[in-house]
Amino acid sequence: LFSFDRPTQKVLIEKIYDFHFSFNSYTLKETYLEWLKNRIANKVVGKTIIEDRNVWNRFCENHPISTMELRDIKIKHLENFYYDITSNKDTTTKAFSNLKSLLNRIFAYGVSLEIIPHVITKEVDTKIFSSRCKPTQKKTCYTQEERTKIKDYLKDKYDTPSLAIRFAFDTYLRIGELGG
């Protein structure tokens, strides 16, 4: 629980009362939205904000856990949530890792707002869920010959996708980084 270090008995009683009965309770979604506003206000890089939103929208937005009070979420709720999102083996290990990171940061923000006493997400053993994730596919790169053929094919094309591919080949950026 919280360490209630307060100067007077009255302040201590008020703090205990606020912890148990205050209206300072947020759902996971409300905490996420406050956390996101805080990150935007602190000028976190736009690409990071977009990635965080994508993770939230993909996994949390429409899941019942997002409407639960943050202080009511227990390990069993997180485990059920993780089972739900890994049940069809459609989630990659990287996506699952990004989700865990997002939830850890949201819960840490909840601690800083004194909504919850500690970051419960770190107490969940997630090894079993990682094994339920889709195996990462081996990445293959284009050979120099394939790159030359593709660039030759695209040299007379000026539509946006063709230009983006040519740019990526010339700068060695990944396609996903071009939209960032």
What does this structure look like?
By secondary structure, the protein is mainly α. Helix 2 packs across helix 5. Helix content is 59%, strand content 0%.
SSE topology sketch:
Blueprint: H1 9-21, H2 28-41, H3 46-60, H4 75-86, H5 93-112, H6 127-131, H7 144-154, H8 160-171, H9 175-178
Using brief descriptors, characterize the structure shown.
elongated, 0% strand, mainly alpha, 180 residues
In summary, what is this structure?
The protein is mainly α and 180 residues long. The chain has nine helices and no strands.
Q: Separation of termini? A: 41 Å
Helix % is: 55-70%
**Class per helix and strand makeup:** mainly alpha
Shape: elongated
What is the CA-based Rg, rounded?
23 Å
The total strand number stands at 0
Low-confidence stretches: none
- Output the number of helix runs: 9
Question: How confident overall, as mean pLDDT?
Answer: 85
Oligomer: single chain
Task: Please give the largest β-sheet.
Answer: none
Order of helices and strands: HHHHHHHHH
Q: Give the DSSP E fraction (strand runs of 2 or more residues).
A: under 5%
